[in-house]
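Database export, one record per block. Field names are fixed; values are copied verbatim from the stored entry.
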Amino acid sequence: MNTENRQGILILGIETSCDETAAALTLDGSTVLSNVILSQIDVHRIYGGVVPEIASRKHVENISFVVEEALRIAGVSKREIGAVAVTCGPGLVGALLVGLSFGKALSYALKKPLIGVNHIEGHVCANYLDNENFQPPFICLVASGGHTHLLEVKAYGEYEVLGRTRDDAAGEAFDKVARSLGLSYPGGPAIDVLAAKGNPSAISLPRAEISGSPYDFSFSGLKSAVLNVLQKMKAADTIGAVDAIGAAGGLPVEDIAASFQQAVVDVLVEKTI
């Protein structure tokens, strides 16, 4: 790729907020030239979730390679970078520090600006990369592994938080329920596959409403309700090893997954609408 005549500002983005080491090159913040993501899912799967210390160590091992690969794919040299953007939070502290330290060192060496990016704002702005005609104002639901936010995006860089989770995020609840059902990590895809075979009305599960905060979320009670159902079934000897996916005393595990997923989706959709 010929980079000598390229017009615009090349920005290197670095993301290490959780268990993925990622780097991307964008032109003028709108055209993606490369996007390299190195996942740690296989490393954390045996633990049933992300182990912060392990995630941090893996970021240290991988970040140089990921950034170099992003530069190579984009056909960009370090001297052409106009600015370095890096996730500064929220996220796992140790994991964030790896990306921040790398970004700070690189920006200092290149004498280029360093831009700290809020993780949640990054989720919102990803919509602009996907559709160049998309623009504010709009309502945005951010439902990721560690965060659940409902935002009013008034203009570029101008936001009002309408609601957020008071405890577990939606993705976190999926992971914990999946672990209880003997499913693999990450829990979201595993439960979704199982739920497609089940009855979403099989179990009556709570949809939390928070007094005085109609747009806030809470999934801890829902997660506990599912665990209580499983414990009662075990106590009544109506379910054997939960990790043996199949019938659970006349109530298939597929129905439990479907009922849980429907409860989460109902809350997310209702509050957003």
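Remark 1: The longest strand covers residues 31-39.
Remark 2: Confidence is low (pLDDT under 50) at residues 239-248.
End of record.
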